[in-house]
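Many introductory courses stop at the sequence. We go one step further.
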Amino acid sequence: MNINPLYALPNLFTAGSIFLGIMSIMFSSNAMFEWSCWLILASMILDGLDGRVARMTHTTSKFGVEFDSLADVVAFGVAPAMLVYFYIGGEYGRYGIVVSGLFVIFGAIRLARFNIATSESEPNSFVGLPIPSAAVLIMLWILVDIKYNLFGVEYGYAILIATFILSILMVSNIRYPSFKKIKWNLKSFVILLILLAIAFLRPTEVLSVLMTLYVLYGILRWMFLIVRMFIKRF
C-alpha cells in the first residue's frame, strides 16, 4: 500500500516543535534564559503551523493529533516549567519544585481534556486556559523581568505564584476565546495593524501586556457571570 509522503510534512513541524522545546530546556539549565524563552516562542510557531499544513495538504490523521499533544507536553509543559525552575524556582527549594511539577501535570490534564472534548463544546472558546498561552505568558514575563529586573530574587516568588495561577486556570472551567472563527472586517483589520505597529516598537512589552489581558479577561468574565447568577437567584 502506497502512503502519501505529504503525511510526513505536518509531523516534521511537530517534531521540530519538540526539538526546540528540548533545546529550551538545555538553554535553561545553562542559565541562558533569554534564548530559552525565544525557543519556546519558536516552538509555538511550529506548533501552529503543523495543523494548518495538515489541513492544507489534506493529511490530517489520528496519529498527527496524538503526536501534536505529546509535543505540546514537552514544548509548552516541561520547557516553561524548567525555565521557571532554573530562573527562579530553585531559589525557593521545594516550592519551586512543586510549582514547576504542577504546571506540567495540569498542562497534561488540560491537553487530555481537550482531546476528549465532544463536538458539543462551544466552538468559539476554550474551556480552561490553553497550554501554549500559559507557556508563552510565562516566557514573556521572564523576558520582561530580565530586561527591567522587576522582581529580582527578593520578589521572585511573584513569578512562582503567577505560574501556579496559570496552572490552575488550565484545568479550570473558565472559558477563553479561541479567535479561530473570528470574522474579519475593516475595523478588526485596522485594529490588528495598529497592534502590530505597536508590537514592532516594543514586542516583548506589548505581547506581555496583551497576553496578560487575555488571561484576566477570562477571569473577569467568569466572575461577572458568577455575580450575575447570584443576583438572579436573589
